[in-house]
Amino acid sequence: MTEQLKDGYDVVVVGGGAAGLSGALMLGRARRSVLVIDAGAPRNTPATGVHGLLAREGMPPGELLERGRAEVRGYGGQVVTGAVTAVDQADDGFTVTLADGRSVRARRLLVTTGLVDELPDVAGLRERWGRDVLHCPYCHGWEVRDQAIGVLGTGPMAVHQALLFRQWSADITLFTHTMPSPTAAESEQLAARGIKVVAGEVAALEIADDRLVGVRMNDGTVVPREAVTVQSRMVARSDFLAALGLQPAQHPSGMGEHIPADAAGRTDVPGVWVAGNVTDLSAQVGGAAAAGAFAAAQINADLVTEETRRAVDAYRNPFSPQNEADVGELVSAERRHGL
């Protein structure tokens, strides 16, 4: 059954992960009408647990999100499943259109849609992603500690990644694959840390009994490995923002594309904020949640500023048609919230 939506909300949050739900929770507690639209495809779906999040260590990602949805609803927020296909400028805000044809108005927009990991074209890589093919040592390093780990080199960050994973295991092999050749200084660092280097392109991962057992080179050689780490190319999920003129830009790290914003999450389009991986490619769950809450506080403050300006205008000239309309709108909003 399709959930009934209101005509308009103070804030529509696009994306229901840690950043979006934390933002919605903050806005609900600020007595704002808020709608979360979630496409239901979180980046960390393949992971068995969330790590590095205080008091929630190892919790399955789905359970964390379900708790978050319940908390948002507890403060009057709506959370619905759906995909946003377009956002357009409208009077006093935006019109948000969903794939099923529904549309709602929003005075402000918080985009927390995350990103997509684009992986190298190596047979078996995508199928093992989030299991024994990893990308972040802080997210997964503990789980593969002391194992034989291979680092698939696809860019200039590969040496850095190999040196990082050396903290978790003494058995690290860097496969140069398509990365630039290590410099003399990098080669010395790798040698000093006991990291083996295998030149040549990788053809496929070797799988046996549903586990990774090795890396097969183009010449047929198989190097035994128990886990492989690779730097994905990370691309913000943001196509629906095109009509607003918000386009993804190359991230300063060179690891992919993001939607640029200031430290508060404010974009170049007035009324649109972003938080989480859609703007910060390296944000983990805790950082994304914090960014969503912080952006929500800025959105609420922005709305308060607008409402105060309207109230002052009405106070100075209470009988103008525009001010009467504005005051009526504010009174209706207050009644909706029981104020």
Automatic annotation (TrEMBL):
SUPFAM superfamilies: FAD/NAD(P)-binding domain. Pfam families: Pyr_redox_2. Gene3D superfamilies: FAD/NAD(P)-binding domain (3.50.50.60). Keywords: Flavoprotein, Oxidoreductase. Residues 9-290 form the FAD/NAD(P)-binding domain. Signal peptide: none annotated. It catalyses: [thioredoxin]-dithiol + NADP(+) = [thioredoxin]-disulfide + NADPH + H(+). InterPro entries: FAD/NAD-bd_sf, FAD/NAD-binding_dom, Ferredoxin-NADP_redctase_2. The keyword Flavoprotein applies. Residues 317-339 are annotated as: Disordered. This is NAD(P)/FAD-dependent oxidoreductase. It comes from Nocardia suismassiliense.
